[in-house]
Design brief:
alpha+beta, seven-stranded mixed sheet, 34% helix, 173 residues, 5 helices
């Protein structure tokens, strides 16, 4: 495997983010959800105007993991008002760490997580937090391994379906 390089995304990466988002979300969650719910969620979450506005929001940062010229995953972090919840000035939300199924187990997620941690430290944040679907055992294990602890739950809407996300945080030194 070629080495993985992490680059900060810009508005020129709009299509790459959309394609990665749709592919990785589908690979991870399609088997557990209805086709209708998936279609509704993907159309809304990865609509061009929505992704463009997120890329242009100074409180959201995207990083893409590249294996040569092939994008294999991405990270989205939010601070301040861009956070989906909490909106605590002392925290950084990891909204997404998405990795192509072909690259699961190849440390791409760890590299993206390390970038989130580095970003939080550069921004002098006190803690990282995120929400992860209670049935995504692979992700729950990954975050626990990286020192996250559960602190709450919230509802995540996928189409018209409600799912429970475990909210986790990691305090930083």
């Amino acid at each position: 495997m070629a080495s993985i390089i992490i680059h900060k995304a810009s508005s020129e990466d709009l299509e790459t983010i959309q394609n990665l988002g749709i592919q990785t979300f589908s690979e991870t969650f399609a088997k557990d959800n209805s086709e209708e719910a998936m279609k509704k969620y993907l159309e809304k979450s990865f609509a061009t105007e929505k992704v463009k506005s997120e890329l242009n929001n100074p409180e959201s940062l995207f990083y893409i993991a590249w294996e040569e010229d092939n994008p294999v995953g991405y990270l989205k972090v939010n601070s301040g008002k861009a956070q989906t919840e909490l909106q605590d000035e002392t925290s950084l939300e990891i909204e997404r760490i998405y990795v192509k199924k072909s690259h699961h187990g190849k440390k791409v997620g760890q590299l993206l997580y390390d970038k989130a941690l580095e970003t939080a430290q550069q921004l002098s944040k006190s803690y990282l937090w995120l929400g992860v679907w209670e049935e995504n055992l692979r992700a729950l294990k990954f975050y626990k391994k990286n020192g996250f602890v559960e602190f709450d739950q919230h509802i995540f809407r996928l189409g018209d379906e409600e799912q429970t996300d475990v909210m986790m945080k990691k305090m930083l030194d």
